[in-house]
Structure formats: structure tokens, C-alpha cells
Design a protein that fits this description.
There is one protein chain. With 1211 residues, this protein is mostly helical. The chain is built from 58 helices and five strands.
């Protein structure tokens, strides 16, 4: 008898256990799994042998009639063997059971080589998976049979030289089943190889794949495409290009399947190609035209199944995303693909369910086919959105506009008009720049469909208006509110309840980006319409109107107070009466909480106070008495409601903290819910013995949840492939944790020292979330919360009249927090989050205040900034090398590099801001010294410290002196920022360098002022820079120099550099307010000229300069400088400055009035107080003339804003 024919000892027992696993009884399954686990632990070799035998045993050996009857046991054995193959293989090697190892390998390979029809196709795939698992590591990790002492058992792999020749032989076999199995096995084995291990096999692989792609058998062709995909995703780019001659064969295989009406195989092959397009897009570049033509033909064919057309469109969409440049250059690509998308968008059914839907829950899918499977309309909408984002408006808009006009002319078919409007809806974000220049025309086009005969088209037009309110937020509301708001109001009277409700939903989007002035003129009519919807018998209308009322209140703020009594009592009544467990009312209750609390924030705590207490009592009682399910939307609404009520009540919220804080803290500390799912095909994978048994049962026809009635589904989990499994993490739990973290941050911002009893717990939660790698937002919110912790400690002791304890507490807290946030920033993989952490360092210094930061900590902060700047510099250098060295870089990759540059620019800006915070709050205690100190980066410092070498020594003044060991890598912040002033540096670096030196001059005391003469030429030079952000920083530097410099030196510098003329040019230029960046630069120029007028008047041409500055005011974009201008103007009036001889005090007072009203909501407390004092001291008749002037020239809004400002002062 051959060795593979011998029946292993445990065969009968294991076979019985495998049959036991086919039942649906959980208790029986658990017992069988436990017995298998015991065998794996006590008799691993015998179990290995038995599973191997059973996975390939003939039907007769199993005592059954045929392959179908044998399949359950064989499939189960194969799946479990695959999952345990590493452990069992290692056990065989450890015990020297090489004969057993060879026997198990031979059984599986012999079964694949069998020409008899003994095994089902699904069994052959499982056996391929077993062989791949047995042989994959052997291909690259083979070691001598006697491993070195100390090697880990699971790293020893016996060689298997017979494997690949056997696989190639299978792939070339005369039997189609064997060819298919060989190719399937190849695709599995390639996943185990790296680039080096793959190299020797490239020629035979090319030969095998070339033949297989034209094979007559459909399974062979499909498996060949899968093997090619596996190869391309492992091989280097240059290797992949050697296989591009196979593309015609791939397209032929796809065409062959279509001709045979085999759309399942067609879809499988296209899905493999999608993976290639995502992972190795350059493979298609040379023959992109042919591939696109083939996919266009498939996606355009009405004769094919929807899923087939959708997968072809997905391929085209991925090409647009991954090969942007080639797709833009490809003739007709945009026209063909956009036409396909829009044609698919017309394939929408007018189902009755659409008209009867009466809850937001049913419409949250974002489309109109929410209750159906994924439709062609869904596919078309999603694809055209992604294509517009990928290719941009210059490419997409012309083609889309032409088709939109054609579709709108289809009077007899509403579906075309619907598709046209939804196209505008979908492409707005990607075509923003191009559409914004013709926004009025586009809006007229959409508004024209508000009166379309068909309700589905009216709904689409309203949906489009809501989306455009977001995509063109700010511009649309500011310029076109008179067109949009009345149209939405009118739509709330539509005969169709879905349309009426959606008008309220679109209003929410509009208000999210609107100022009060864009909504207030329509307030009475809006509120009346929304009240009507709230009182209707449609739950959908009520839910949308509820949120719309909240959005309007949040937008118009205190102007909503006159409607307060109309809304608050019925809203509270609704909250009380819907406290039961009715799931249908959960969303309504959540939206009621949202509406009540947003109204409360809008009208203020004085008006909302009593009702807020009542609402809190209801919510706290609900929290105590109700059992919330994990997916209950009320949980999120309730947490947000707590945050808003806290903001409204202030410290009156403190009594509720014992009821609110435990749940919030628990949620913010909740451990991630991680699950292991089967990877790949569910019938071929599992989780150890237990999961394998479940997967095997599914494969054999048993219940899919036989292992555990509560086994997790992948729904609601974000998953990543990890070997032959998927690791999943529940996304809702992560979102709840980040939401709780944001609300705790909000509490701390509002309550400050009142949260001191919770400070220790909150500090630990914050620090823990700072390194919570599963969710970026948790880390970001934690970074934003760090400064609030400092404020909490400081405020607590200062209120108690204990300033010394406040300093001590803050110093102790900073000693703990600063190293944590600095370490987290150094380890942070996401540059966006890293910039928030750097910002947190600066905010911590600001909240701590002066005289808290000590000299050694100043050096630590300086070294941290050096680390961040050096790390950023390295990232920028790598991207620069990529641009220079990669001759095949395309527009897509360049765009990705530019996006990365933008995030690193944010890091640079935050580093400069930390310098300012440190100088302002710790200049006197050591940061002036630290700024110039020669320091090593942290990594170098730690290496030297480990070697016993000192990196810096503190001189008597606290200065750090570099030792010889450190000299090679030591640098200073001063050097780094000085190097950024070079003209060849990027604009972001020039700006950061200018800002840092301006801060140094402004806050560095005598040491800072000593650098004015050296830095002034750079300020002067960059006033004429092509980039507005650089001009802004240069103008700010001139203003700081004027404020700090000695008069004689400043006159000399102005004589050598024509800065005054350059500043005047900036404020007078016709493009000064062309965009935010230009306006911010002009704002700083105006501020600088005012500083020169007050501190260096000898350098001005007063009769020309001052009128130009006053004519430019008010500053509106740079609110920080706007606050500074308020103080400068007040200073001029208060001190009767000489500039009042050149312009009248009335002109200055008018300029001050316009400035405070322009930035009313951004006006800081001290400038506001100073301005009110100046107005109080002015002649009442002068103030009356100014008010009338503002009403006549600035309109009612400006006049009323001034009245509100003055009345607030009286209050």
C-alpha cells in the first residue's frame, strides 16, 4: 500500500467530529470544537495526518456513495487543515516527523493531479488553498532540516522542491480541471512571494498565463486573470510592464465570456482588473485606449445585466482616479464615460414606495432608491461624482453641460430631466472653481426645475440646491440668497409631501453656511412655513422641519428669540410624551433634543435657563430609566444636547455633571470592538479551529452562523486583510468615542475650573486618546483638549484667590502634558493630526500664561520644534526627489504630492505660531535664549545620552552650548527660520520665516529688537512677492518693526527700502479684496501703515497715506489684525495723536465704528471695551452723525450692528 493510502489512527474519530459540526445545534458544535482543540493540543501529528487524509479521501473510503456525499467531511477537513497548517507543520518539524510532512503534502498535490471526477470544483479550490498554505512559505523560507538552536518553531519550513514543477505541470495539463486548479494555485502561491522570490519565475509565469488567457475553458481563463492580478500586485513596476503584452489576451478572455453569455466570469475578471487598476495603474497606461473601449462597450450595453455594466463603469471610474492625466488626454474618454453615467442615471423606476416613505431613517441612503439593491442610477451618480473629483472641472464640465442641456429638453420623459439635475448635484464639488464663475446661471437652471411637472424632478432640484449650498457654501448664500430662500419657502407648499419635506432639508444645508443677514429678511415667512410642516401629519416633514428650525435658529442667533415661545413649549411636550421604547420615535426624539438645544444656544442662557433645567431633568431621567440599544440614534443626540445645554447654562450645568460625566468618560475610554472575520471566500477561511469549523459548515451546506448565534457580521465594521483573515473594528464605537472626547472638550471649554473635581480623570482620558491609533479624530480631539486641562487647573485656583497654587498646579500639569503631546506628535503618522498636536503645544503655553514655563522646559519646546521642522523638511525633501527622479510621474501623483505639501505647510505654520506663544509667555523666563540655542534633535540627543555624552550644557544665563559631540548635528530655531528667508525657498517657508522673525522682533525684547536691521531687508523685499501669503507676513513684519524700532534707525531703513510706497500700493490695488489671501495681505498692510502712523509718523506722507488707509478699512479677513486696528484707532483718539491733525477725529471715529461692526462676532473683549469707552467719550451729536452715515452708506445691517454693539455696552 502506498504511504498516502494508509488510514491514520484518528481518522474515524475526526470524521465523526467533522460530521458533528454540520448540525445547527450550537451546543453540539461547541462540544465538537472543544474536542478538536484538545486533539490539536495533545495529538497534533495524529490530527494533522487525519485531516490530511480526510480532505482527500475517496468517497468509498468515507463510506459514502459519491463526491457530493463526501464533500461535507472533505471540505471541513480541508478548511480546518488550512487554518492550522502553520502550527501543525511546525509540530511535525519539531518532532522530526518529516515523513508525515511529506505524506500530507503528497496527498493534497496528488488529489489535484487526479484526472478522475472525484472532487467537486469547490473542493479543488480548498485543496489549492491547503497546498498554498503548505508550500507558500517553503518557496522563500526553506532552511536546513536541523534548524539552529533557538530558532522559533513556526519559522522553520522544510523545502518542497517538487511543488512548482508540479504546479506548472497542472497549469499545462491536457485536462481543463487541472489547468484551472493549477492557475488557481498559482494565484494563491504568488501571494506568499516577494519581489526577489518572484524573479526566477517570471518567464514560466508569462508563458503559462499567455496560453491560459486564450484557453477554451472559461474557468481557466478566469483563474489566469486572477493569477495575473496576483503577480502584478507583488512585482515591481518595471516588472509589471513586461506583462503588458498580455492585455489583449485579457480583453479577449473578457470578450470570450461575454460571447458565451457567461456574465459571472466576465464580472470576476473585471473585478480582478479593478484591483490591478487600483494597485498598479501604470500597467494599463500604454494600452489604455483599448481597455477603455472594451469597458465602455460593456457599460453601454443595455443587453447585459446591471451588475456587469456597473462593474465595467467602476473600472472606468478607477482609471479616472488612478490615471488622471492619461484619461484627460484620451480622446472621447470624458464624453463617453459621462454619457454612460448620465444614461445609467435615467434607469430609475417610479415606484409607489418612494411616495409613501415617511421617515428620515428610510431616506438616509442619500438617494431615491434607498430601499432597493444597488441600482444603475446609484452607480451612475456615484461614478460621475468621483470622475468630476478626479478629472476636475476643466475636463468634466464642458461635456456634462452639453448633455445636461440635452436631457432637460426631454419633455416626455421625466427620468432624463431628473438625471440632468442630479448630474449638476453630483459634479459641483469636483467642478467648483469652474461652476462658481457661472453660479447664477446654474442656479437659474436648477430653480427652473422647482416647478417641473414631475415630483421626482422637483425633489432632485431641491436636493441639488441643498448640495450646492454646501459645495458653494458662503458664496451662494451671500450673493444669491434672494433667489434661493424664497424658492425653498415656496417649495414647502408643494403638493407632494416628499418634496415639501426635502425643501426643509435643503434649508438646513443653506443655513449651515449662511450668515444671519442672508436669512433674517425671510425669517417670518420661513418660521411660519416650518411651523406648518411641524404640525403636519407627515413624520418625515416633522423630522426635517425640526432640524430646519434648529438650523435657522443657529444661523440668526438672537433674532430667533421672538419665536421662542411658539416653539419651546410644544418641543418640550414632544420630548416628554415620546419617552417610551417606540423605535419609530427614536429619531424624532433625537431631533427634538437637537432643536431644543440649538434654539437655546441661539437665544442665550438667560432666556433658555429655566427651560434648560427642565430639559436636563427629562434627559437625565431618560438616561436612568431607558435601556438604549447600541444603534439607538438618541445616544448621539443626547450627548450633543448635553454639550449645548452646558454651553447655554454655563456653571448652572454643574449639578448635572454627576449624571452625565460617568457615561461620557466611559464612552471616551471605551476599548475598541475588534473582531476577526474570515478572509477571502467564506467557505475557505475561518478563525482557528472554531472559526474554521463554522466556515467549513457553511461550505458544506450547513447554517452560516452555526458556530455562534451571535457571530459578528462585517456590517458596521471597518476591515483590513491580515493574512488569510480580516481584522474588523466596529466603526460606530470609534465614532462614539471621538464624539464623547469632543463633548468632554466642549465641557472643559465652557466650565473651566468648575470641572476641577474631574481633572485627574479627564487628564488620563485625554492622554490615552492622544495615542489611540484606531481613530484619527480621537487623537485630534485629545490634542485640542490639552489646553483646556491647563485652563481648568488655572481657573480653579485663581477663583479661589490662590494665585501661587495656580502657578504651581499649572506648572505640574505642564510638566506632565508637554512631554506627552510632544512624544505623540513625534510618533504621529498623520500629518494633519500632527499639526493639531503642534498647535496644542502653543495653546498650552498661551493658557499657562507668563512666568510658568521654566528655562529647561523652554529648551525642550525649542528642541521639539526643531524635531518637527526637521521631520517636515525630510518629508518635503523626499517628495522633491520623487519629482526629480521619477521620469514617469503623472498628474495624479503630482496632485497627491501637492496635497501632502499643503499638510506640511500647516505643520510649518503651527511651528511658527508656537514660537510666538513661547516668546509671549516665556520669553523672559528662557525662550529668548532657547530660540538661539544650538540644540540637537531629540533622536541624536538620546543616542549621545545613552553613550554618556552631554549634548548641551547650561550656562549661567541658561544658554545651551553645543559640545563637540553635538556640533555636527546641532542647530537652532533661529538658524532654521533664517534659512527660510532665502528667495529660492517655497512660499510657505518664506512666510513662516518672516512670521517667526516678526514674532521675535515683537516679543523678543531687546534681543529681538537687535535683529531689526538684519531682517528688515527681507520684510521689504517680500512686500512685492507674487504670493499673497508671503506679502501678508512681510507687511506684518514691517508693522512690528515700526512698533519696536528706534525712530532714527527706522527712518534710515525706510530711506533705504521703499516700504511705505509698497504698503500703500497693497491697500490701494484694485485686486486688494479679490480673494481671501489677497485681502489678508492688504489687511496687514493697512495695519502696518497705522502702526507707522502712530509710532514712526516721520516716515509717512500723511495727507496721502492716512486717507488711503481709512478708505480701505474695515479689515474683515484677518480678524487678529482687525482687533489690533481697533486698539490702534482707540489709542489715536484717546491720546489725541498727531495724526488727528491730518485727518479729523470724526473720520477716525467713523472708521472705528465700521471696524467694530465688521468683526462683531470676532471682536475680543479688551478691544471691544476700549471701543465702547471711546464712543462714550465722543460727542453724542458726532455719534448720531456717524450712525446716520453708516445707515446711508452701509445699509440697515451695518447701522443695526452698531446699535447692538452700543447697547451691549450699556447692558
Amino acid at each position: 500500500m502506498n504511504r498516502q493510502d494508509a488510514v491514520p489512527p484518528l481518522t474515524s474519530q475526526v470524521a465523526q467530529l467533522l460530521r458533528q459540526l454540520q448540525t445547527s445545534d450550537t451546543t453540539t458544535i461547541r462540544a465538537g470544537e472543544s474536542e478538536l482543540d484538545a486533539l490539536a493540543s495533545g495529538n497534533p501529528l495524529e490530527l494533522y495526518d487525519a485531516l490530511s487524509y480526510l480532505s482527500t479521501a475517496p468517497a468509498a473510503a468515507l463510506g459514502v456513495a459519491d463526491a457530493v456525499a463526501a464533500s461535507p467531511v472533505r471540505s471541513s477537513a480541508a478548511v480546518i487543515l488550512r487554518q492550522r497548517v502553520v502550527a501543525l507543520d511546525s509540530a511535525a518539524l519539531e518532532r522530526g516527523a518529516l515523513e508525515l510532512l511529506a505524506r500530507c503534502r503528497d496527498r493534497a498535490l496528488t488529489a489535484l493531479q487526479s484526472v478522475q471526477e472525484e472532487y467537486l470544483s469547490s473542493e479543488l479550490r480548498k485543496l489549492c488553498a491547503v497546498v498554498a498554505a503548505l508550500g507558500g512559505m517553503a518557496l522563500v523560507c526553506a532552511v536546513p532540516s536541523t534548524p539552529a538552536e533557538g530558532d522559533e518553531a513556526d519559522r522553520r519550513v522544510a523545502p518542497w522542491p517538487e511543488l512548482l514543477p508540479a504546479v506548472y505541470a497542472l497549469a499545462k495539463s491536457e485536462a481543463a480541471r487541472q489547468r484551472a486548479a493549477g492557475l488557481y494555485l498559482l494565484s494563491s502561491l504568488i501571494d506568499y512571494l516577494d519581489e526577489d522570490a518572484l524573479e526566477p519565475h517570471l518567464l514560466p509565469l508569462h508563458e503559462v498565463l499567455s496560453a491560459a488567457l486564450s484557453d477554451a475553458d472559461p474557468e481557466v481563463r478566469t483563474n489566469a486573470v486572477a493569477a495575473l492580478r496576483a503577480l502584478l500586485l507583488v512585482a515591481e513596476n518595471k516588472v509589471c510592464l513586461k506583462f503588458t503584452d498580455l492585455i489583449p489576451g485579457v480583453l479577449g478572455a473578457v470578450s470570450f465570456s461575454l460571447s458565451a453569455f457567461d456574465e459571472d466570469d466576465t464580472r470576476k475578471m473585471i473585478e480582478e482588473l479593478i484591483e490591478v487598476a487600483q494597485g498598479e495603474p501604470a500597467f494599463f497606461r500604454a494600452q489604455l485606449g483599448a481597455v477603455v473601449d472594451a469597458m465602455v462597450q460593456i457599460a453601454s450595453s443595455d443587453a447585459l445585466e446591471d451588475e456587469t455594466r456597473q462593474v465595467a463603469l467602476e473600472f472606468l471610474t478607477v482609471c479616472a482616479e488612478q490615471l488622471r492625466g492619461p484619461c484627460r488626454r484620451l480622446p472621447q474618454f470624458r464624453n463617453q464615460v459621462i454619457s454612460i453615467c448620465m444614461k445609467m442615471m435615467t434607469e430609475i423606476e417610479d415606484k409607489q414606495e418612494w411616495y409613501t416613505t415617511d421617515s428620515v431613517v428610510s431616506t438616509e441612503g442619500g438617494g431615491e432608491e434607498e430601499n432597493d439593491d444597488y441600482s444603475n442610477a446609484d452607480a451612475g451618480q456615484g461614478a460621475i461624482d468621483r470622475i468630476a473629483l478626479a478629472l476636475g472641472g476643466k475636463t468634466v464640465l464642458p461635456a456634462a453641460s452639453q448633455l445636461v442641456q440635452q436631457f432637460l429638453q426631454q419633455r416626455d420623459d421625466w427620468r432624463y430631466r431628473h438625471a440632468a439635475v442630479m448630474t449638476i448635484n453630483q459634479i459641483g464639488e469636483g467642478c467648483r472653481k469652474q461652476m462658481e464663475s457661472q453660479l447664477g446661471e446654474v442656479l437659474n437652471l436648477v430653480l427652473g426645475r422647482f416647478s417641473d411637472p414631475h415630483p421626482r424632478v422637483r425633489w432632485a432640484a431641491i436636493n441639488c440646491m441643498g448640495q450646492m449650498s454646501t459645495d458653494f457654501g458662503g458664496v451662494l448664500q451671500r450673493k444669491y440668497h434672494a433667489m434661493v430662500v424664497p424658492a425653498l419657502v415656496s417649495a414647502m407648499d408643494d403638493s407632494c409631501h416628499r418634496v415639501r419635506s426635502h425643501a426643509a432639508a435643503a434649508l438646513i444645508n443653506f443655513c449651515d453656511e449662511a450668515s444671519a443677514s442672508a436669512v433674517t429678511p425671510y425669517l417670518d415667512t420661513l418660521v411660519a412655513k416650518l411651523m406648518t410642516l411641524l404640525n403636519s401629519n407627515s413624520r418625515l416633514a416633522q423630522e426635517q422641519a425640526m432640524t430646519a428650525v434648529a438650523a435657522v435658529a443657529g444661523c440668526v442667533d438672537t433674532a430667533f428669540e421672538k419665536y421662542y415661545e411658539s416653539f419651546m413649549p410644544p418641543l418640550k411636550g414632544l420630548l416628554r410624551q415620546s419617552t417610551g421604547g417606540d423605535k419609530r420615535m427614536r429619531l424624532m426624539r433625537g431631533k427634538t433634543m437637537e432643536c431644543i438645544t440649538l434654539i437655546g444656544v441661539a437665544v442665550g442662557g438667560d432666556r433658555f435657563g429655566a427651560d434648560a433645567d427642565e430639559v436636563m431633568q427629562i434627559l437625565v431621567e431618560n438616561q436612568r430609566s431607558m435601556q438604549f440599544e447600541p444603534d439607538d440614534p438618541q445616544i448621539g443626540y443626547m450627548m450633543q444636547a448635553y454639550a449645548r445645554i452646558c454651553k447655554s447654562l454655563g456653571e448652572r450645568f454643574v449639578p448635572y455633571l454627576p449624571y452625565v460625566m460617568p457615561a461620557l468618560c466611559e464612552t471616551a475610554s471605551h476599548k475598541p470592538d475588534i473582531q476577526v472575520f474570515p478572509g477571502g471566500d467564506a467557505d475557505e477561511n475561518g478563525d482557528g479551529l472554531v472559526g474554521s469549523a463554522a466556515a467549513a459548515a457553511t461550505a458544506a451546506g450547513g447554517s452560516g452562523n452555526t458556530t455562534d448565534a451571535n457571530a459578528p457580521s462585517e456590517d458596521g465594521f471597518a476591515t483590513v486583510e491580515f493574512g488569510d483573515k480580516k481584522i474588523g473594528i466596529r466603526t460606530s464605537a470609534l465614532e462614539d468615542r471621538s464624539t464623547a472626547m469632543s463633548i468632554l472638550s466642549s465641557f472643559m471649554s465652557d466650565l473651566k475650573g468648575a470641572l476641577f473635581p474631574y481633572l485627574e480623570q479627564l487628564t488620563q482620558i485625554t492622554v490615552d486618546n492622544l495615542t489611540f491609533w484606531y481613530q484619527d479624530m480621537c487623537r485630534q480631539y485629545a490634542a485640542n483638549t490639552m489646553p483646556e486641562l491647563v485652563t481648568c487647573a488655572k481657573d480653579h485656583f485663581e477663583r479661589a484667590g490662590q494665585p501661587q497654587q495656580a502657578v504651581a498646579a499649572v506648572r505640574e500639569l505642564m510638566a506632565y502634558l508637554l512631554p506627552k503631546v510632544c512624544a505623540a506628535a513625534r510618533d504621529e503618522p498623520e500629518v494633519e493630526v500632527q499639526s493639531h498636536m503642534i498647535e496644542a503645544v502653543g495653546s498650552i503655553l498661551e493658557r499657562a500664561g507668563p512666568a510658568v514655563l521654566q528655562a529647561d522646559t523652554c529648551l525642550d519646546v525649542a528642541r521639539f520644534l526643531i524635531d518637527m521642522l526637521k521631520e517636515r523638511e525630510e518629508r518635503v525633501r523626499e517628495r522633491l526627489l520623487t519629482r526629480v527622479e521619477d521620469s514617469e510621474i503623472d498628474e495624479d501623483e503630482l496632485q497627491n504630492l501637492e496635497e501632502a505639501d499643503e499638510w506640511d505647510d500647516a505643520v510649518l505654520s503651527e511651528c511658527a505660531d508656537v514660537v510666538r506663544s513661547a516668546l509671549v509667555n516665556a520669553g523672559a523666563t528662557g525662550f529668548v535664549v532657547a530660540f538661539e540655542a544650538m540644540l540637537e534633535p531629540t533622536a541624536a540627543s538620546e543616542e549621545h545620552a545613552a553613550a554618556g555624552e552631554a549634548t548641551t550644557t547650561a550656562a549661567g544665563s541658561g544658554a545651551a552650548v553645543a559640545t563637540p559631540a553635538a556640533a555636527a548635528t546641532a542647530t537652532s530655531l533661529a538658524q532654521l527660520f533664517a534659512s527660510m528667508l532665502a528667495q529660492e525657498r517655497p512660499a510657505a517657508e518664506r512666510r513662516a520665516g518672516l512670521c517667526a522673525w516678526a514674532y521675535w522682533i515683537a516679543h523678543g525684547g531687546e534681543r529681538g529688537q537687535a535683529y531689526i536691521q538684519q531682517v528688515f531687508p527681507a520684510f521689504a523685499l517680500y512686500l512685492n512677492d507674487a504670493e499673497a501669503e508671503v506679502r501678508q507676513a512681510a507687511a506684518y513684519g514691517i508693522g512690528m518693526s515700526a512698533q519696536r524700532c528706534e525712530a532714527g534707525l527706522f527712518s534710515t531703513l525706510c530711506g533705504a527700502h521703499p516700504v511705505i510706497a509698497a504698503l500703500e500700493h497693497m491697500v490701494r490695488h484694485q485686486a486688494a479684496r479679490e480673494d481671501d489671501a489677497s485681502e489678508e495681505a492688504a489687511d496687514n498692510a493697512a495695519s502696518a501703515l497705522l502702526r507707522v502712523a502712530l509710532h514712526q509718523p516721520q516716515c509717512l506722507r500723511p495727507r496721502e497715506t492716512l486717507p488711503a488707509v481709512l478708505a480701505y478699512l474695515p479689515l474683515q479677513v484677518d480678524t487678529e489684525e482687525a482687533n489690533a486696528v481697533v486698539e490702534l484707532l482707540v489709542g489715536a483718539l484717546r491720546n489725541h495723536h498727531a495724526l488727528l491733525k491730518q485727518v479729523s477725529s470724526e473720520e477716525v471715529t467713523l472708521a472705528l465704528a465700521r471696524q467694530v461692526t465688521a468683526i462683531d462676532e470676532y471682536l475680543e473683549a479688551e478691544p471691544a471695551r476700549a471701543a465702547r469707552e471711546a464712543f462714550a467719550q465722543a460727542d453724542p451729536r458726532l455719534m448720531q452723525r456717524i450712525a446716520m452715515e453708516m445707515r446711508n452708506t452701509g445699509g440697515v445691517d451695518e447701522y443695526e450692528a452698531l446699535q447692538r454693539f452700543l447697547q451691549a455696552g450699556h447692558a
